[in-house]
């Protein structure tokens, strides 16, 4: 702001601190809950300072699981990790290749191909769940990582992002490469790919979070509990009858489920912001 | 936009584009067309035979009071989340935009909820407002309100709006902050020289210049509430109590899975597709206009 | 090494836009040829066709004796310096220069020898490990030249290589390019819109306009004897003054009723017909000598350039500029009498805009 007003500054701090408190409080509570035993939570008077059950809760959750499900959460995290990595890496590979084709080549039906990809922006998985489910079932991909990943890696986002980046690469670089004797493969490997690294990293961050947080799709196609992802697992822990819900385990799981994507956002903030802002253009 | 320089040959590009095309056709176009086709069919009770029934599934849908209720629920849910998440985000963004010390740290502290899965966000909020053990439910009940989102539809909706808003503020905050930082300082300074105070400057200069961002975020937020909040609803209320928090998307899921009414579910999917396409088209018109400026 | 021959070369873009309209040109082995013209005149397109970056719609391009119409850029044995340098941003200076040689499977020690040699010539040895973004504009320019030199090509192509540099550096690099080309003796084709660059660099100057060649010649020929009004006003700064005049008889024209003697005038022009009279600002003198032709000028204002002054005003109702050494004419002069040397008068046909000189 233009004026230097101590009061305005104070109000700004106050608002922001209040905002941070509201944003952080639910997570703080979850972390606290993961340090108490079931009884302390159930009686409705959980203290707001950490208890002494953290080690017990986390070891039990990770390696044993809840009383009903009995699925170790560590295994669910492995599943989530495989799905998130699969979606992120798969999407990067297929979309950088298709963007390279669409931007740098002229071939029959190029425009058509672009539009075919582009329109998928408009069809989120939620509107076509059952038919997609049926296809995945017919292909025998239920309860497989391939079935978890494949339907989610094709979308226009990545292709558009790479296309947008490629358009900013000066034409002269391709021309200089041509004169330097580099063909389509060498130009891609030696010039375009190294230049795209930041874009790739930004897309990776966004898609990792997207993949890790998937809910509806894994809910539909995983029936075996050994294929469950952590986000699905936690829901099963709390939907059983109230009295049986082991809140300390549920909240420990919630904390564990938040750790990887939140760490990614905090430590790769610059890439995260870039990815988020640019995929929405 | 077109590149001036191209690489010759067309077998290579076709090979490059093949994986994406294959996946797109198998997992997007085929299911989408199946949804459209199924919406004109009715299956018998055992799912063994189906007959073509034209628009009957659609007609049946519009005779269901539940469908109208889902529409109303969706409308209320979207407008509340849009209003709260946009206004809170704008407030926080304007404060963070002031050149105060530690501004960057606040940004980090405010954006991470984006990374929390919707279902997890829902679980966090149930835990806080659980009628018997919720830390924040106790003071409410102590105040004499019979707080119970498990049984009271209004309470359930409030809880949904809170969790959905909580998760989405970070996104809107980020874009508002970027929008504010894109406004040239000189314009604000000119306003100050013209004698406009901070509040007046905000409403007469900053807010109008921010309106493209606001509009964009409004559309994105509505799309978010329509589709991505599925996880929150499923975790927090499961559409209940008594279907009072069933949105259009949740109903597609519930009717198809629980009810087994694939034709009706497909018809609902088709209607949703039309809504998404309309929203996307609106967004494009906005993008186009932005390009012209 | 080899010369370059263009034979009625055409470029027609989609939508029937003809960017190059049948250009024929022979560029001798080892010479420095500059294509100059305003933007959109087709000079860059022509250069890019020689490089193989644009397809050729008609005609033939030969490098040496080889027709290269269908040859890939990499196989034409040319090197190009781009306006924005087109350095690979992620590669070091060394790798930028070595890349083309590596792709051609040149032995490692040979690459090393050539890169170091080029770096020495261009005085960029201290920067070989740096990335292009850590270099100044002038240094990037040198790297771009180095990338061309190491290849030891038959032809250098330059596409406005100096236009991204500031004025001072541009003059310095201009001199270096000229010196380098003389030392290496490689046929060079250079595109620019800057007529000073064109004059100073070229052995052979090609002035283009509207997809066609207006005139080809040595810089002094083009300056001394412009073939069209376009060339006359494009080459030279400030541009040549063009006055409407009338043919009075053999070797004589008039402007605003004042008689002017002309040395270089086509024979048999009908007296009384309209003609355009061109006079360079630096070719007219103040004061009148007895018996010489003269023109009266009303002066509006004076521009100071330091060593010289520009007098702006009107002759016979038409804008006119005179350049004179500072102090030669009093700055507050309002009326000037200009003496005209018959050898410095250029005549042009008002319809065809072609020079009406001796055949």
TrEMBL record, chain A:
Q: Which InterPro entries match?
A: MetI-like (IPR000515), MetI-like_sf (IPR035906)
Q: Where are the transmembrane segments?
A: 12-31, 81-105, 112-133, 145-166, 187-210, 247-268
Per the record, the GO terms for biological process are: transmembrane transport
Q: Among its keywords, does the record have DNA-binding?
A: no
Which SUPFAM superfamilies does its entry note?
MetI-like (SSF161098)
Q: Which Pfam families match?
A: BPD_transp_1
Which keywords has UniProt assigned to this entry?
Cell inner membrane, Cell membrane, Membrane, Transmembrane, Transmembrane helix, Transport
- The question of whether 4Fe-4S is a record keyword is answered with no
**Topology in the membrane?**
Multi-pass membrane protein
Q: Where in the cell is it found?
A: Cell inner membrane; Cell membrane
User: GO CC terms on record?
Assistant: plasma membrane
- Taking every annotated instance into account, which residue ranges of this chain make up the domain ABC transmembrane type-1? 77-268
Cited PROSITE patterns: ABC_TM1
Q: What does this protein do?
A: Part of the ABC transporter complex UgpBAEC involved in sn-glycerol-3-phosphate (G3P) import. Probably responsible for the translocation of the substrate across the membrane.
Please give the subunit comment from the record: The complex is composed of two ATP-binding proteins (UgpC), two transmembrane proteins (UgpA and UgpE) and a solute-binding protein (UgpB).
Similarity section: Belongs to the binding-protein-dependent transport system permease family.
Name this polypeptide is given: sn-glycerol-3-phosphate transport system permease protein UgpE
Please state the gene responsible for encoding this protein: ugpE
TrEMBL record, chain B:
Q: What is the recorded membrane topology of this protein?
A: Multi-pass membrane protein
User: Cell membrane: present as a keyword of the record?
Assistant: yes
Asked if the Swiss-Prot or TrEMBL record annotates the protein with the keyword Disulfide bond, the reply is no
Q: Where are the transmembrane segments?
A: 12-32, 67-93, 105-128, 156-180, 201-227, 266-287
ABC transmembrane type-1 domain location: 71-283
Which InterPro entries does UniProt cross-reference here? Answer: MetI-like, MetI-like_sf, UgpAE/MalFG_permease
Localized where?
Cell inner membrane; Cell membrane
Q: Which residues form the signal peptide?
A: none
| One GO process term, biological-process aspect | transmembrane transport
Principal subcellular localisation of the protein: membrane
* Gene Ontology CC entries for this record: plasma membrane
Q: What keywords are assigned to this protein?
A: Cell inner membrane, Cell membrane, Membrane, Transmembrane, Transmembrane helix, Transport
Q: Which domain of life is it from?
A: Bacteria
Quaternary state and interactors: The complex is composed of two ATP-binding proteins (UgpC), two transmembrane proteins (UgpA and UgpE) and a solute-binding protein (UgpB).
- Report the protein's function: Part of the ABC transporter complex UgpBAEC involved in sn-glycerol-3-phosphate (G3P) import. Probably responsible for the translocation of the substrate across the membrane.
Q: Which protein family is named in the record?
A: Belongs to the binding-protein-dependent transport system permease family.
For this entry, the protein name equals sn-glycerol-3-phosphate transport system permease protein UgpA
- The species this protein belongs to is Microvirga makkahensis
Q: Species lineage, top-down?
A: Bacteria, Pseudomonadati, Pseudomonadota, Alphaproteobacteria, Hyphomicrobiales
Automatic annotation (TrEMBL), chain C:
Q: Which SMART domains match?
A: AAA
Domain named ABC transporter: which ranges? 4-235
Gene Ontology biological-process annotations: carbohydrate transport; glycerol-3-phosphate transmembrane transport; glycerophosphodiester transmembrane transport
The places in or outside the cell where this protein is found are: Cell inner membrane
Subcellular location, principal = membrane
Keywords (A to Z) from UniProt: ATP-binding, Cell inner membrane, Cell membrane, Membrane, Nucleotide-binding, Sugar transport, Translocase, Transport
Q: What is this protein called?
A: sn-glycerol-3-phosphate ABC transporter ATP-binding protein UgpC
Species of the source: Microvirga makkahensis
Q: What is the lineage of its organism?
A: Bacteria, Pseudomonadati, Pseudomonadota, Alphaproteobacteria, Hyphomicrobiales
């Amino acid at each position: 702001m233009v004026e230097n007003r101590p009061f305005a500054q104070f109000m700004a701090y106050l608002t922001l601190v209040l905002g941070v408190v509201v944003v952080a409080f639910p997570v703080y509570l979850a972390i606290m809950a993961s340090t108490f035993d079931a009884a302390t939570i159930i009686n409705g008077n959980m203290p707001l300072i950490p208890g002494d059950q953290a080690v017990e809760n986390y070891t039990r959750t990770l390696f044993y699981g809840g009383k009903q499900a009995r699925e170790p959460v560590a295994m669910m995290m492995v599943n989530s990790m495989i799905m998130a990595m699969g979606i992120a890496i798969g999407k990067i590979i297929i979309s950088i290749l298709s963007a390279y084709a669409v931007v740098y080549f002229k071939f029959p039906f190029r425009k058509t191909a672009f539009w075919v990809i582009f329109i998928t922006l408009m069809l989120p998985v939620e509107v076509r769940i059952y038919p997609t489910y049926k296809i995945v079932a017919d292909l025998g991909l239920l309860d497989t990582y391939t079935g978890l990943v494949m339907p989610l890696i094709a979308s226009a986002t990545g292709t558009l992002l790479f296309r947008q980046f490629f358009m900013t690469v000066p034409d002269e670089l391709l021309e200089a490469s041509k004169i330097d004797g580099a063909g389509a493969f060498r130009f891609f490997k030696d010039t375009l790919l190294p230049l795209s690294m930041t874009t790739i990293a930004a897309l990776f961050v966004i898609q990792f979070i997207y993949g890790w947080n998937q809910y509806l799709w894994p809910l539909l196609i995983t029936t075996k509990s050994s294929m469950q992802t952590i986000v699905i697992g936690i829901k099963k822990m709390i939907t059983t009858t109230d009295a049986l819900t082991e809140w300390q385990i549920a909240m420990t799981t919630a904390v564990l489920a938040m750790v990887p994507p939140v760490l990614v956002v905090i430590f790769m903030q610059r890439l995260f912001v870039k990815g988020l802002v640019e995929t929405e253009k | 936009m077109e590149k001036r320089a191209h690489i010759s040959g067309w077998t290579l590009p076709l090979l490059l584009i093949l994986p994406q095309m294959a996946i797109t056709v198998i997992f997007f176009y085929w299911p989408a067309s199946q949804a459209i086709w199924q919406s004109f069919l009715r299956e018998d009770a055992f799912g063994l035979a189906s007959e073509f029934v034209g628009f009957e599934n659609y007609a049946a849908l519009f005779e269901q009071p539940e469908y109208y209720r889902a529409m109303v629920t969706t409308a209320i849910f979207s407008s509340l989340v849009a209003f709260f998440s946009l206004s809170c985000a704008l407030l926080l963004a304007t404060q963070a935009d002031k050149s105060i010390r530690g501004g960057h740290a606040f940004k980090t502290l405010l954006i991470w909820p984006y990374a929390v899965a919707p279902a997890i966000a829902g679980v966090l909020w149930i835990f806080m407002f659980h009628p018997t053990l919720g830390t924040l439910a106790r003071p409410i009940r102590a105040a004499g309100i019979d707080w119970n989102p498990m049984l009271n539809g209004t309470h359930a909706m409030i809880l949904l709006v809170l969790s959905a808003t909580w998760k989405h503020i970070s996104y809107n905050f980020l874009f508002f902050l970027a929008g504010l930082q894109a406004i040239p300082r000189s314009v604000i300074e000119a306003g100050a020289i013209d004698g406009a105070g901070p509040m007046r400057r905000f409403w007469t200069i900053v807010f109008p210049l921010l309106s493209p961002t606001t509009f964009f975020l409004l559309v994105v937020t509505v799309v978010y509430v329509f589709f991505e909040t599925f996880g929150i609803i499923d975790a927090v209320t499961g559409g209940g109590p008594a279907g009072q928090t069933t949105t259009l998307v949740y109903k597609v899921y519930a009717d198809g899975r629980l009810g087994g009414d694939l034709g009706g579910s497909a018809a609902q999917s088709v209607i949703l597709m039309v809504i998404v396409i309309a929203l996307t088209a609106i967004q494009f018109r906005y993008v186009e206009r932005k390009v012209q400026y | 090494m080899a010369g370059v021959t263009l034979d009625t070369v055409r470029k027609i873009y989609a939508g029937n836009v003809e960017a190059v309209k049948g250009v024929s040109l022979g560029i001798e082995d080892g010479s420095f040829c500059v294509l100059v013209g305003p933007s959109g005149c087709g000079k860059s397109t022509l250069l890019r066709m020689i490089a193989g970056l644009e397809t050729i719609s008609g005609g033939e391009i030969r490098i040496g004796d080889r027709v290269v119409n269908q040859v890939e850029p990499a196989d034409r044995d040319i090197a190009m310096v781009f306006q924005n340098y087109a350095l690979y941003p992620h590669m070091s200076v060394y790798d930028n220069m070595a890349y083309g040689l590596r792709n051609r499977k040149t032995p490692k020690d040979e690459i090393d020898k050539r890169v170091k040699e080029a770096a020495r010539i261009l005085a960029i040895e201290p920067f070989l490990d740096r990335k292009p973004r850590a270099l100044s504009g002038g240094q990037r320019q040198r790297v771009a030249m180095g990338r061309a030199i190491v290849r030891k090509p038959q032809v250098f192509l330059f596409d406005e290589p100096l236009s991204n540099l500031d004025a001072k550096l541009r003059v310095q690099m201009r001199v270096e390019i000229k010196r380098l080309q003389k030392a290496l003796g490689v046929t060079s084709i250079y595109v620019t819109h800057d007529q000073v660059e064109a004059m100073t660099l070229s052995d052979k100057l090609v002035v283009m306009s509207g997809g066609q060649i207006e005139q080809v010649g040595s810089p002094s020929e083009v300056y001394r004897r412009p073939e069209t009004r376009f060339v006359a006003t494009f080459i030279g700064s400030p541009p040549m003054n063009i006055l409407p005049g009338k043919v009075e008889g053999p070797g004589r024209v008039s402007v605003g009723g004042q008689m002017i003697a002309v040395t270089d005038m086509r024979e048999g022009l009908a007296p009384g017909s309209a003609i355009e009279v061109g006079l360079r600002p630096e070719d007219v003198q103040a004061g009148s000598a007895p018996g010489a032709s003269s023109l009266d000028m009303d002066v509006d204002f004076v521009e100071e350039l330091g060593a010289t002054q520009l007098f702006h005003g009107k002759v016979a109702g038409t804008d006119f500029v005179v350049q004179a050494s500072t102090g030669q004419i009093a700055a507050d002069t309002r009326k000037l009498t200009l003496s005209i040397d018959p050898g410095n008068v250029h005549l042009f046909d008002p319809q065809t805009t072609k020079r009406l000189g001796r055949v």
